[in-house]
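S.,

Sequence below, as promised.
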Amino acid sequence: MSRRIDMGAFPHIWCRANNKRGDFLVSKIETLLTLQDVDLQIRDIEKELEDIPARQKLEESRLQEHREALGAAEDKHKAAQAAVQQLELEAESIQERIRKLRQQQVELKTNKEFKTMEHEIEMAQKDILLLEDKELVLMEGVETSRLIVKESSADLKDEEEAVAEDVKALDGRAGELKDELGALKAERDKAAGEVDASWLQHYERLLSRRKDRVVVPLQEGICGGCHMKLPPSVLHNTHRKTDMVVCEYCGRLLYS
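The prediction came back faster than expected:
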């Protein structure tokens, strides 16, 4: 939950009331520092919540590379299968031609014609053997590409599971942050109610324009926000701890 300011770390921001009881009263600056501490935590949480969808999208983008690898492997496997099928069609076509030649061979009249056709049949059979050799090589490629598809599919599945876990963890983180944010906003309302109205107005106007602290220390006459050198009178005013002291360069509220 929110970080409490150690009162002992800011001894300069306590003042002793000039009344009979002699109670210690928290200065106006201290109430602003408490409010600022809560506001900065709220800002950090809101920023983290805002970033979570982008982080989830980034996690999911990890899958794209694996999907592309699987797609390429599947395309290569299909191409290898198509090449084998094409050889099978060519071999079947030659087998059909051989069958027709055999049928024609029985009708031939002369021995010369028979031998000529027999030679043509032998050449066709050699073509089939060549196609079968090529098919064996291509079948090895088909098996290799099949294994690559299987491995790529397994890799994608593993990555999908990992991404799902990461996205789920970010969803859980978002839920935790929302709960913490709700508690901090309630704490913020309480802290803001303790701040002087005019100081609160000036503080919130500054906070809406800046991403860093707007209530800063004045150390050795130098503003803790813009680091500009201020006159000694400003340091004197910060020691009073009752009046609003504003940096004339950046507009931040100063304390010492």
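Residues 74 and 149 are 6 Å apart (CA to CA).

Coffee later?
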